[in-house]
């Protein structure tokens, strides 16, 4: 029996995950143990397999975690009434950036495992597994066209949230009025209206006068690449993170899953606060008739500087609400997540 430098006995001393990167040499894992030459060679071989594991292996583990977080995000959005039976979430696939992940067409609260998730191509929003062809959201083109045009976008939420809907059908602009919604455009969120594009979608013959019988209508839905592309154009200003959709809802984009969930929730909360402020202001006007001399009758929205500072603060602290929201859905028996 000789004493040699070799790797740890893996069954008793698992190698820390961070040490499995190729940049960590074999010597960084070694310590002296007595062993025969055959055992030594076997152990060295086992350690070498770990220390030379390709980065794809680490990414696959991270991908498994992403699937779990994706389902958690769906549950959080339902718990906070941003999504109900309708609406959807997507995330860009970090292993193949020309694809993205959505759930199959089902209620977000009921998504429970990786089997409920589908990978789609950004080009054409087609499933990479053709057996999933009949399980797709009709509005997946919202996601594919935004990902196509904006490489920095990695997560998208499309919601029909009731609190936001009134701002999609009148001239009152949704603007940031609470500090947690500093990501909203201070001058107001743009509104996408399918009516402005129906004629062009049907071709040159109808570009100016779409048919009046509704035969060419999309039903306010973004069900093809053309309308998806037109919606994506609304995000051309890099400061635009939320676009409202007339009579339909809103879409928000972000660089990661946690941020897009944060934005979706606080878009809804900002809309609720702004609506109440408008009601309060109008009620005061009805009772008093006019505001006292020198009083400011307007709603005090965030300035551009305030919105920017508030948005930066929220990005730095987004993990705090995420941890709370994650726990809320973990303890609720409605939500199951085996991914």
TrEMBL record:
The organism's place on the tree of life at top rank: Eukaryota
Chain ranges of the Class II aldolase/adducin N-terminal domain: 68-275
SMART domains documented for this protein: Aldolase_II
Coiled-coil regions listed in the entry: none
GO biological process: pentose catabolic process
GO cellular component, one term: cytosol
InterPro entries reported for this sequence: Aldolase_class_II_sugar_metab, Aldolase_II/adducin_N, Aldolase_II/adducin_N_sf
Keywords of this entry: Lyase, Metal-binding
GO molecular function: aldehyde-lyase activity; metal ion binding
Protein known as: Podospora anserina S mat+ genomic DNA chromosome 3, supercontig 1
Lineage: Eukaryota, Fungi, Dikarya, Ascomycota, Pezizomycotina
């Amino acid at each position: 029996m000789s004493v040699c430098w070799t790797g740890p006995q893996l069954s008793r001393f698992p190698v820390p995950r961070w040490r499995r990167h190729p940049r960590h040499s074999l010597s960084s894992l070694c310590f002296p143990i007595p062993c025969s030459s055959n055992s030594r060679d076997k152990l060295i071989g086992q350690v070498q397999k770990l220390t030379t594991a390709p980065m794809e292996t680490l990414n696959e583990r991270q991908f498994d975690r992403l699937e779990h977080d994706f389902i958690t995000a769906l549950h959080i959005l339902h718990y906070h009434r941003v999504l109900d039976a309708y609406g959807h979430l997507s995330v860009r696939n970090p292993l193949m950036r020309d694809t993205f992940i959505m759930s199959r067409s089902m209620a977000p609260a009921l998504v429970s495992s990786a089997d409920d998730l589908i990978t789609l191509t950004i080009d054409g929003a087609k499933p990479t597994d053709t057996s999933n062809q009949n399980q797709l959201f009709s509005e997946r083109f919202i996601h594919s066209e935004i990902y196509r045009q904006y490489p920095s976008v990695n997560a998208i939420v499309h919601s029909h949230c009731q609190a936001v809907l009134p701002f999609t059908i009148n001239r009152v602009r949704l603007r940031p009025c609470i500090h947690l919604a500093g990501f909203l455009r201070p001058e107001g969120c743009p509104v996408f209206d399918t009516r402005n594009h129906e004629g062009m979608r049907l071709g040159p013959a109808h570009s100016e006068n779409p048919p009046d019988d509704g035969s060419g209508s999309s039903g306010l839905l973004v069900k093809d690449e053309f309308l998806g592309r037109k919606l994506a154009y609304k995000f051309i200003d890099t400061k635009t993170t939320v676009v409202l959709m007339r009579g339909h809802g809103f879409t928000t984009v972000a660089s990661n899953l946690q941020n897009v969930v944060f934005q979706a929730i606080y878009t809804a909360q900002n809309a609720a606060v702004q609506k109440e402020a408008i009601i309060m202001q109008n009620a005061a006007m009805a009772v008093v008739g006019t505001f006292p001399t020198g009083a400011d009758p307007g709603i005090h929205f965030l300035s551009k500087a305030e919105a920017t500072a508030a948005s930066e603060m929220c990005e730095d602290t987004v993990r705090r609400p995420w941890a709370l929201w994650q726990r809320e859905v973990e303890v609720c028996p409605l939500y199951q997540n085996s991914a």
